[in-house]
């Protein structure tokens, strides 16, 4: 990163034509550095909670989780903290929870599916989160949602936890928002329905690409088939953004494409107004936003959705954005 780019780190993400874009932070350990970096962003768009469960023999207690969620919420102030519930399985394993071996773990019992099965683990996390939600602006997000049933089942567990807390006279956040990751094509394609059941959503382009192109995101042998600029990706994202914007509910991108210098302007062209990324991409993203005119971004976005291949789209974006990136 050049010194010139770094200057943008603490700036506001405003487009050339004056539209504010919420630039949020992805965090995955809540260590001192990550907590410090929150100040450069408009909140935490993705708080991966897996670290709490990894590399240890026992599950994290409610109290332990509560303290960490509280710390992050305090630092973010009024800005949102989007806490993603446990996304384990697939490539991520736990020592503190023995899981049966599966032939296709990425298509198996992972994330929300696993949490719905291991209710005790899920409920402990939700209790800790809801209790921490009395401070700050907490958004709870469920990963790997594929159907309306998934959303309703997750919300039913939340209601159970809220009732438990009520019964025990324990205070919890009453204004917590509930949302989903959109990272399975089946839920993206019914975004018009899903939006009615949630307060917000965030598109996980890493898994969305994996499941749309049918490519294991870790398998180097087929890496060339993992096409993030595949026209199908842009069309799915466009459709999802349109449905959420129509409903007036927040929609964000927290996968790699959100901080990607070529794709991010297209996302804004679709009407996306929130993007979340690792700290390493924040300054550059704000710089690109400040040089981008949204009418131009919209024109590009329309063109991209007419194109036939990822290669064609990439070449077009490189050429069109050469004065911006
Ligand atoms: C994604 O899938 O795009 C995402 C943000 O989640 P993860 O990379 O943790 O699966
Ligand atoms: Mg994911």
Automatic annotation (TrEMBL):
It catalyses: L-histidyl-[protein] + phosphoenolpyruvate = N(pros)-phospho-L-histidyl-[protein] + pyruvate. GO terms for cellular component: cytoplasm. It is found in: Cytoplasm. The keyword Transferase applies. One of its GO terms (biological process) is phosphoenolpyruvate-dependent sugar phosphotransferase system. Phosphoenolpyruvate binds at residues 48, 84, 206-207, 217. Its cofactor is Mg(2+). One of its GO terms (molecular function) is metal ion binding. Keywords: Cytoplasm, Kinase, Magnesium, Metal-binding, Phosphotransferase system, Pyruvate, Sugar transport, Transferase, Transport. Residues 5-293 form the PEP-utilising enzyme C-terminal domain. The active site is at 254 (proton donor). Its main location: cytoplasm. Its EC number is 2.7.3.9. Mg(2+) binds at residues 183, 207. General (non sugar-specific) component of the phosphoenolpyruvate-dependent sugar phosphotransferase system (sugar PTS). This major carbohydrate active-transport system catalyzes the phosphorylation of incoming sugar substrates concomitantly with their translocation across the cell membrane. Enzyme I transfers the phosphoryl group from phosphoenolpyruvate (PEP) to the phosphoryl carrier protein (HPr). Belongs to the PEP-utilizing enzyme family. This is Phosphoenolpyruvate-protein phosphotransferase. The gene is ptsI_3. The chain holds residues 248 to 572 of 572 of the full protein.
